[in-house]
Specification:
The chain is mainly alpha-helical. The chain is built from eight helices and no strands. α2 runs antiparallel to α3, α4 crosses α7 and α6 crosses α8. The mean pLDDT is about 85.
Length: about 190
Amino acid sequence: MNMPLDALPDASDEALLVAFGNGNTDAARVLTGRLTPRALGYSTRLLRDRAEAEDVVQEAMLRLWKIAPDWRQGEAKISTWLYRVVSNLCTDRLRRRRNVSIDAIAEPEDERPGAEEQLTQAARMKALDAALAQLPERQRQAVVLRHIEGVSNPEIAAIMEISTEAVESLTARGKRALAQALAGKRAELGYSNG
């Protein structure tokens, strides 16, 4: 599949992967630019470590490029496949962490906002991340995919290899737990009581 450069930004993920599988490296650049930011956001929220999340996304993208020539069109969405790989890689890293001393884990990098609004947003994200960290792993995965990444329930079911009903249950329980954890912090996080 030889695709002209100006057609690449409008091509579907699948068309870009097939084009890369056929030797078009420009297609890989476009697909990487499209998929990497969301995969990085997802893995950062699961791992709570940007550097480790970057490693996970790089590994997931390498796996995607490796399977590109053999991609079976129509079997799965590329984003679903990528989220599943990222989920599995994050789960593996989280399991390995349990065997490491807490002192051996690096502190997460601090953002350096310059304006008051950026400080407020940082406080809100910190509170959300802290509340997310308290959720069981599967609930956290489902809530992040659904409510932060905007992935549909059927797609989450495919990523997590569970039923749609189980996704709905995980996200509902996760939302309730988040609401409870954040309930007393509205004023502190800059939300009005209106």
